[in-house]
# Entry
Amino acid sequence: MTAVDALAGGFADPPLEAARAFRALLDVMARPGRIADLGGAVPPAPLSVAAGTVALTLLDGTTPVHLAGAHDVAAVREWITFHTGAPLVGAEAAMFAIGTWEALQPVGRFAIGTPEYPDRACTLIVERAELLAEGARLTGPGIRDHAHLSLPEVAAFRANRALFPLGFDCVFTAGGRVAALPRSTIVEDV
Amino acid sequence: MSSHSMDRAEPQTARQEWMGLLARARPAALAGLLPDPLPDHALLRAPEIGAVMVRGRAGATGAPFNLGEMTVVRCSLRLASGAVGHAVVQGRDRDHARRAAVVDALMQTGAAAAIRAAVLDPLAQAEAEARQVRAEKAAATKVEFFTMVRGEDK
Amino acid sequence: MYVAVKGGERAIDNAHAWLAEERRGDPSVADLTIPQIREQLRLAVNRVMAEGSLYDPDLAALAIKQARGDLIEAVFLIRAYRTTLPRHGVSLPVETAQMAVARRISATFKDAPGGQVLGPTFDYTHRLLDFTLAANGEAPVAPRAPAAPGMVPHITSFLNRDGMIEDAPRDDTLPPDLTREPMELPASRATRLQAIARGDEGFILSLAYSTQRGYGRTHAFVGELRIGMVAVEMEVPELGFAICIGEIEVTECETVNQFKGSRTEPPQFTRGYGLTFGQNERKSIAMSLVDRALRWKELGEDFTGAPAQDEEFVLMHADNVQATGFLEHIKLPHYVDFQSELELVRKLRAEVEASAMREAAE
# Structure
């Protein structure tokens, strides 16, 4: 039986809020480095509002999800299960993974797709303390000249870019803010 | 993913029985037995139309396969008393799901006996009667054989 | 060469308006209601549910009305609607042994426990047009006989006890879902059954008939055909147990097939399986024959080149929405393609003419 608290905190108006959140996610994924506001969900700690909103928007019964580190607690597990129906799985089987960058290590565990189906790759939802338009230099599709984003590191994203068209994609969340880094983006130290 | 190993030889709990009865009920019949206004409640998961993939088994007993989907509405809510009710009901009638969840919640309160008498018992009786009628019509088409000739003695 | 064209919006709007008027027909004749279609054209509704892959009799009836009775168009409408629905879960496999049977017959066991129950069948009708139906709206009443609703055991379970028929052992492998992932060949039996269950009835019927005529012969008899209501149960995570979410009508067919044995299997009867939404017995029998024909590799039989044994042929051509989409798209504007065809033919003709001129000059 699920604790009553886990039953609260979903979208109040699911069609509208999910559509708005999906649009915001499309925008940040299409414009790597752009930081947007994202809200609507009221998830249990330590899941941020933005990460909870991503979960409500993108997860369903056909998207296995992995909870890493401190995010793998009963309150979050029950909330995700009740509101999205997504099965909870190990890192290797996950289509989505949620946790801090440290908890998600080693990222080599996550699916990167296959040459026939590059879409069968994991999307990492990386919880950050803050998101700033500074730090690593981003270039590539969706970026006019270059952009900057406060990434947790550079080497892992360079290695991931080398796998293109395979590789994982990342969504960064901090409080009610979101940014994204698709596998196509070239990441360099400044 | 949750295991599909639940053994259905186990007798159903009372709650499983009433949730099934509410899901199978005709929406109008349920609304007739529990008319508006419904008791105050907060929606935890507003009534939402969706689909459930229905599975069968190859050879009736072998490996599962996906037969096709069916429409359902699901709803979860909390009464002012704190009791939480859930419903997943066949079809696309949002009020059906909301009512079924309200009954599920009320059945966990002091009102259970009254709700059973006013709502569940009449639904169960109507269902049993409908099933009996179908079974009797089927029984009337059962073949009685008369052996005319048996061929294997030749 | 590329030909850019624009226009036709007004013509399209007017065509839609005329379509709506034609759909309604003569306004002096009463409009069809959805309950009328659902109750009185139930076998059409069943077919649309089976091939539309969505059990909802009211929606199927609406689709039939909107499609003016074109069942493939109605299937298309249901498939399109289905894609808008969130998936709330997956049921436990339906327990057809628990079915409340309206019809249950066996061609192989006369005295099967539970008996031969004919149900509402066309089988013994004389196929003479009944002009009383054109005249009035009488409501016949079916006779009844004493009955105790109860479980009717599967006929194959009796043969199983003697080891005379292959077993279908319990297996909980999660099946792939071809509505979510692209179909990959070779396909599992689970994928094949899903594809055939939603496949076009006419196509599956013809394939099944071809196996009876010798193209991949499987010597099939209907071991059991049953039609009735089954409960659909689903595990609900927040409850921690399974609940019944409704009841659906299904038709199930199990064929019993002669089998001489192979390199790996002893001589015994083998089985084909059909299951469809609604009362849909032609489709269900055909499905079980095609299922059995496709199992040649697993049973160690020879591939004889028969279409019904050819998984790629069967699975890639069974879906009438895919088929009609590709077939009918060739009537839509192909000006770009055709312009290049014209250019090519003109060029070839010019070359032929030029060489003819040269030859004449020499």
